[in-house]
DNA sequence: TCCTACAATGGACATAGTCCAAGTCAAGTG
DNA sequence: CACTTGACTTGGACTATGTCCATTGTAGGA
């Protein structure tokens, strides 16, 4: 069973069939589904679940900090359940495959204060782009 | 006059009033307009320019590597003409203001080869998020 | 078991972006 | 300078993604 589900329950989330299904769909490493993909998989388990509910639930999970929104491509936002292990993303420019990666170093520390324009900087997102072995082989 | 325009002309681009206007709109530092904003400003200079042309032109500039697409928020893509000076972005989580920043260090070098999953990594995008002084003051 | 506040529904609406067939025009040629 | 041609522009329809809201349903406490 999903750690995610346990954590959500622990926060006093009202547990419904719909939320359970969404949480189950979003489980594992290297998981980066779009809202529509989440909806499609949720429908497979609970046919009457609506798109709006999936959007609402994903949004709530993001607000609670249990899921991260990633927009690696120009298309839909993707949802990454691996919120509790800081990581960044490596995206194939050709097929769109996404992998979680853990670079050395701390990019936050690399931003000198005279480059902060007075901002209070709290967060950094890094997206590496390249070609995956699969796509490199087939071209 | 815009360097951007000169470079485009040098690449054998057919110069039209529409393209000139789009290139003029996209000039300067810390410029990060959405396609619609570009269109709005272009219309001010050339009332009959169409949305499709703005999208086409922006897309071509991106393909030529003269302009960078940035998707810092969940909403529209933004276009950054500063493609020839490598830089990253600092975004205010509250008002959406974007600044160009130049961190120390090279994030590309920070990705160990055993974290590359066989990808040929060519590019990295870094987005810092925080609160700008303006928003910090008014809350 | 009953109540009630919170959640789900689904359909209309909003926003961003793409596509296409037809018309227009930049720029090379003679 | 006029001609020609293929690249460029147009505008409107279309697609994709996401949001809103009034109504209906239900989890979980009393």
TrEMBL record, chains A, B:
<feature type="binding site">
    <location>
        <position position="135"/>
    </location>
    <ligand>
        <name>Zn(2+)</name>
    </ligand>
</feature>
<keyword id="KW-0805">Transcription regulation</keyword>
<dbReference type="InterPro" id="IPR043135">
    <property type="entry name" value="Fur_C"/>
</dbReference>
<keyword id="KW-0238">DNA-binding</keyword>
<keyword id="KW-0479">Metal-binding</keyword>
<dbReference type="Pfam" id="PF01475">
    <property type="entry name" value="FUR"/>
</dbReference>
<dbReference type="GO" id="GO:0000976">
    <property type="term" value="F:transcription cis-regulatory region binding"/>
</dbReference>
<dbReference type="InterPro" id="IPR036388">
    <property type="entry name" value="WH-like_DNA-bd_sf"/>
</dbReference>
<feature type="binding site">
    <location>
        <position position="95"/>
    </location>
    <ligand>
        <name>Zn(2+)</name>
    </ligand>
</feature>
<keyword id="KW-0862">Zinc</keyword>
<dbReference type="GO" id="GO:0003700">
    <property type="term" value="F:DNA-binding transcription factor activity"/>
</dbReference>
<dbReference type="InterPro" id="IPR002481">
    <property type="entry name" value="FUR"/>
</dbReference>
<feature type="binding site">
    <location>
        <position position="92"/>
    </location>
    <ligand>
        <name>Zn(2+)</name>
    </ligand>
</feature>
<dbReference type="GO" id="GO:0008270">
    <property type="term" value="F:zinc ion binding"/>
</dbReference>
<protein>
    <submittedName>
        <fullName>Transcriptional repressor</fullName>
    </submittedName>
</protein>
<dbReference type="GO" id="GO:0045892">
    <property type="term" value="P:negative regulation of DNA-templated transcription"/>
</dbReference>
<dbReference type="GO" id="GO:1900376">
    <property type="term" value="P:regulation of secondary metabolite biosynthetic process"/>
</dbReference>
<dbReference type="InterPro" id="IPR036390">
    <property type="entry name" value="WH_DNA-bd_sf"/>
</dbReference>
<keyword id="KW-0678">Repressor</keyword>
<comment type="similarity">
    <text>Belongs to the Fur family.</text>
</comment>
<keyword id="KW-0804">Transcription</keyword>
<feature type="binding site">
    <location>
        <position position="132"/>
    </location>
    <ligand>
        <name>Zn(2+)</name>
    </ligand>
</feature>
């Amino acid at each position: 069973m999903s750690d995610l589900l346990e954590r959500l329950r622990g926060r006093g989330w009202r547990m419904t069939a719909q939320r359970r299904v969404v949480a189950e769909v979003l489980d594992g490493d290297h998981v980066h589904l779009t809202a529509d993909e989440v909806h499609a998989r949720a429908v497979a388990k609970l046919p009457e679940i609506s798109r709006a509910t999936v959007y609402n639930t994903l949004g709530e999970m993001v607000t609670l900090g249990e899921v991260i929104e990633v927009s690696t491509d120009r298309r839909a936002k993707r949802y990454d359940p691996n919120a509790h292990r800081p990581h960044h993303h490596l995206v194939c420019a050709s097929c769109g495959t996404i992998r979680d990666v853990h670079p050395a170093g701390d990019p936050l520390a690399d931003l000198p204060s005279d480059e902060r324009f007075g901002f209070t900087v709290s967060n950094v997102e890094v997206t590496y782009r390249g070609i995956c072995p699969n796509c490199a082989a087939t071209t």
